[in-house]
Fold these 3 entries.
Entry 1:
Amino acid sequence: MSGDDTRRQVLVKVAFVAFLVLALAFYFVLLGRIAIELIGSGEVAAVAIGIGVLILPILGVWIVATSLRAALAHQRLARRMHEEGNELDVSDLPRRPSGRIEKAAAEALFEEVRKEWEADPENWRTNYRAARAYDYAGDRTRARESMRRAVALERLERQG
């Protein structure tokens, strides 16, 4: 895949995310207006429903902001790993017809990365690699935990 193709794919994904964020913002504004109208009616039931409806856009904004912040942090780590040449190489691992790495190969990769992590658990790079290996092995919960730890450790490294 050429650099132009990769850039195009990135732009398409960014444009899609931007569209979704704008659509959600529009939806949140509409919900907010409806909530304010219900609260402004003064009727007990309408006020209660209005308060409930008002919680939805507030919660939605928090979820979108948190998700975007995490995605940007993960992307920063991915870029740094790529620039340093430390990204996991999975190009020659056997794959299923769906494109996912075969389970046995993903588990073998994870065991290799786990040893790296055990040797240096306070390094954001080993945590990042562990998160990627967990993801390839299908353990999304541990992948998220490891990635959160990698982000926190990388932030400490940048600040210190």
Note: The CA atoms of residues 2 and 8 lie 10 Å apart.
Entry 2:
Amino acid sequence: MNHEKTAASGVFAGIERVISLILEWLAWAAYAVAPLVLRIALALPFFRSGLTKWDGFLSLSPAADFLFEEQFKLHIFGGVYDLPAPDTMAFLDGVAEIVLPILLLVGLATRFSALGLLVMTGVIQLVVPDGWANFHLPWATMAIALIAIGPGVLSLDHLIGMIFRQSKPGGAA
């Protein structure tokens, strides 16, 4: 009888150990993968939008100019206003919608890129105030999360950080 209790205890201890290992692995996977998924989810809509703004290398499409000059208006305090310097804003927006998502995808300057896209989301909210629930709120949430938690271990930021920590005197070899 005592032998049965010991055997059962051993089986339960083994099962408990396996479950513990699975939970540890899932926690690490979530820690590693969640920031990557956030970076991809935030980058894709901006990058896709950015692709529509260009006709070639540094050649803004006429449609992008038209949007910023004629279609996009600021909705502030109940009034509707033209965008200031629409040609410049169209160019800056086009550049930002390509560069910032690429930086996010590779995890380089992640917090800065997420902050840039958060600011862009705020401006987009002023231009398209009805999009807050379906688009702007999730984008802002993802950007804020990336600013708070950082790029994660699957990023160039993390790799660069490891290299610099190792190259410091007294750093890990």
Note: The longest helix spans residues 2-51.
Entry 3:
Amino acid sequence: MYLTRFRINTARTEARRLLSSPHRLHGAVNMAFPEPPARDGEGPRVLWRLDQAPGGRVDLLVSSPGRPDFTHLVEQAGWPSLGEQGWTTFAYGEFLDALAEDDVWAFRLTANPVHHIRRSQDPVGAPTKRAAHLTVHHQAGWLLKQQERAGFAVLRRSGSPVSAAGAVGTGEEAPRGTGGPAPHPAGERRTTVTVPTVEAGGSEEWGYQLVVHDRAPVRFGKPSGNPPHRASESGSDVRFTRATFDGRLRITDVAAFRRVLTHGLGKSKAYGCGLMTLAPVR
């Protein structure tokens, strides 16, 4: 496994085109591999995410089973005249192998939080439909529901029924063994979450070391050969809601957690969702 960080030159026209379309960027990421791994759910897959950093910097993070070659992306969206490689690739497998139960890490995850509903107007027995979670509480609740099967537990805030010392920090530092950014770039607007939870028949507010930010609907057209203004009529539009989660977690099941890091979490993995990265807790 490898984890790669590519800095995007946002002054270039082609870079802005890529950033405006997850479909184009998905294609550019796939072209870094002669034979991208199959997406059959059996083995690790290529995952990617865009991270905003201080000073208007945008980083592309890519987790992959094979080592990528982003020469084409440097030519499109980097600094090709500088003669430098333009990206940094880290050996991710060694880091994954060293993870252990009860390890505590800061994390970042960009995901597509969804649930399945049956509308009141739907006939009895009709299949449920996938719908996006739109509020901070529901999006945070979606993440907390993933914990047990995903092999981690988000830490509670100090003063909660089960507390963990320390607050989530800010700033940027290189994660040990991952090469990704720390979860909280300085100056970034974040929403601290206190998630209402029902237990033993009553309602109780539990605070978690978790913030939700970069919450936005995503909509883009996939090339279909139709004129641009007909994209929505052709039914080729892709729509989902994206949210980024920063916080602290404790590993509860190493095997399940490694699978999350290499296979992704949630839907829309091809379009920049599902990649979780870790950073040391200061």
Note: DSSP finds six helices and twelve strands in the chain.
